[in-house]
Amino acid sequence: MGDKLRSKVRKSPEASSVTGHELSKTPTTLLDRPNKNLAGIFACALLVFDAVLILFIIAYVPYTKIDWDAYMSQVSEFLNGERDYSNIEGDTGPLVYPAGFLYVYTAIQYITGGLVHPAQILFGALYIINLAIVFFIYIKTDVLPWWALTLLCLSKRVHSIFVLRLFNDCIATTLLHAALATLLYQKWWLGLIIFSLAVSIKMNVLLFAPSLLLLMLKAMDISGTIVALGGAAFVQILLGFPFLVSYPVAYVSGAFNLGRVFIHFWSVNFKFVPEPVFVSKAFAVSLLILHLGLLAIFAHKKWCKHEGGLVNVMHSVYISTVSRFPLQGLYAYGTTSKTLNEEHIVTTMFVGNFIGIICARSLHYQFYSWYFFSVPYLLWKTPFPTPLRIALFVAVEYCWNVYPSNNYSSGILVCIHLMILWGLWIAPPEYPYMDDKSPAKRKKR
C-alpha cells in the first residue's frame, strides 16, 4: 500500500509540491481523515448531547456564587444614573470592564429578573451557540478528524464557567468566535465590528488584535484597514459615550486598565513564581517583552514565510499605499486585494492568542475560556502523533481542574503550553492565499 501511494505521488504532476512531512501525515484510516460531511453530522449529534448535559448540570450541580451579585450591583448603579466609573462597584470591587458589559448584563437582568436559575438557562443556550460556532470554524478549516470534535465537549471547567459561574468571559468568547467565523468569509469590516463588540465586554479579546491586524494588512489595502479600524473605534466610542461625556478619565482608566495586578493566590499558570516576583513590575515587563518577541518571530518566520517575511509584507503594504495615493486613496479604500486561506486565518488568530495566554502574568480559572476552544485545533496543527495530542489535551484540562492551583499544577501547565508552542513552531506553515497556485487548494481538489 505504501509503495502504491509513493508511486502515485511520483507520477502526479501536482504532487511535486507535497513534502515528505505532508506525505508522512497522509491519513490512512477513517478515524484519521478529515471529513466535512461526517464532521457536520457528528457535530450536530454532539450539540444535542451537550445540550442535554447542560440541562443536567443546571438541574443537579449546585451553582457557585462568585461574580453574579457584583455584576447585578454594578448594573443597578448604572440604571440608577451613575456615570462615574470609579463609583460603580460591586461585592468584588470597582467595575473594570468596558461599557458593553453593562449593556449586556442590563439586558440579562431584564430578561432574568436578576435571578440565577433563569440566567443559567440563558448561559446554557449561550454555551450551545458558542459551541456551534466553534464547530463551524473547525469544519470549515477541515484540520481535525471528525471524531476529535468530541474534545470540545469534554471540559468540566468550561461547562462550569458558562453555567455555574455566569462570567462575562463567556459572552466575550462567543462574540470573538462569531467574528472569526465572519472573517472566514473575508468580511473584514463586519468581523472587526463584532470583534470590537467582544472587546467591549472584556479586554482579553485584544490578545487576538496583533494577528487580526496582520491578516487585514495582507487581505486589504492600507486605507481599507484604517477605515475598518476606525469603525471598530467608533463602536467603542458609541458604547462608552454616556461615560465619556461625563467622566472620561474615570471611564478610560477604569475600563481599559492595562496595569492591573492580579492576586497571586488565584494564578493558575504562575503559582510557582514567588509572590514578590509575581507582583513586581520587572516580571510584568519581562513577560510583555517575551510576548512581543514571540509575536514578531512567529509573524516573520511562520505567518509571513510565503511572502518572504514580515518586513517584506510591510514593504508591500507601503508600496501599495504610495502607488494609490493621492488619486485613488479617497474613493478606492476597502478593496480586498487578496483572499486569505481559511486555515491561515484561523491558525494565525488562534496561535497569536495562545502566545498571549503563555505570556499572561496571571490566568484565573475563568480565563480558560479564552483559549480552550482553540486547544484541539492547535494540537492538530502540530506534527505530534495523535496519542500525544490527546495526552496533552488531558493534561491541560487536568491542570485547570486542580483547585487551588499549586506549584506543580502551574509548572506543568506552563511546560505543556511551551511544548504545544514548540510543536506549532516546527510545523510547516500553510499557504496563506486562496488562488489556483495554492498548494492547499490543490490538495483539496
UniProtKB/TrEMBL annotation:
Entry membrane topology: Multi-pass membrane protein
Pfam families in the cross-refs: ALG3
Coiled coil stretches, renumbered: none
Top-level enzyme category: transferase
Membrane-traversing stretches: 38-63, 95-112, 119-139, 188-216, 222-241, 248-266, 278-299, 345-364, 410-427
Keyword Transmembrane helix carried by entry: yes
Region ranges (Disordered): 1-21
EC number: 2.4.1.258
InterPro entries, per the entry: Glycosyltransferase_ALG3 (IPR007873)
Key words of the record: Endoplasmic reticulum, Glycosyltransferase, Membrane, Transferase, Transmembrane, Transmembrane helix
GO CC aspect terms: endoplasmic reticulum; endoplasmic reticulum membrane
Catalytic activity line of the entry: an alpha-D-Man-(1->2)-alpha-D-Man-(1->2)-alpha-D-Man-(1->3)-[alpha-D-Man-(1->6)]-beta-D-Man-(1->4)-beta-D-GlcNAc-(1->4)-alpha-D-GlcNAc-diphospho-di-trans,poly-cis-dolichol + a di-trans,poly-cis-dolichyl beta-D-mannosyl phosphate = an alpha-D-Man-(1->2)-alpha-D-Man-(1->2)-alpha-D-Man-(1->3)-[alpha-D-Man-(1->3)-alpha-D-Man-(1->6)]-beta-D-Man-(1->4)-beta-D-GlcNAc-(1->4)-alpha-D-GlcNAc-diphospho-di-trans,poly-cis-dolichol + a di-trans,poly-cis-dolichyl phosphate + H(+)
Localization terms from the record: Endoplasmic reticulum membrane
Designated name of the protein: dolichyl-P-Man:Man5GlcNAc2-PP-dolichol alpha-1,3-mannosyltransferase
Source species: Spinacia oleracea
Taxonomic lineage from the root: Eukaryota, Viridiplantae, Streptophyta, Embryophyta, Tracheophyta
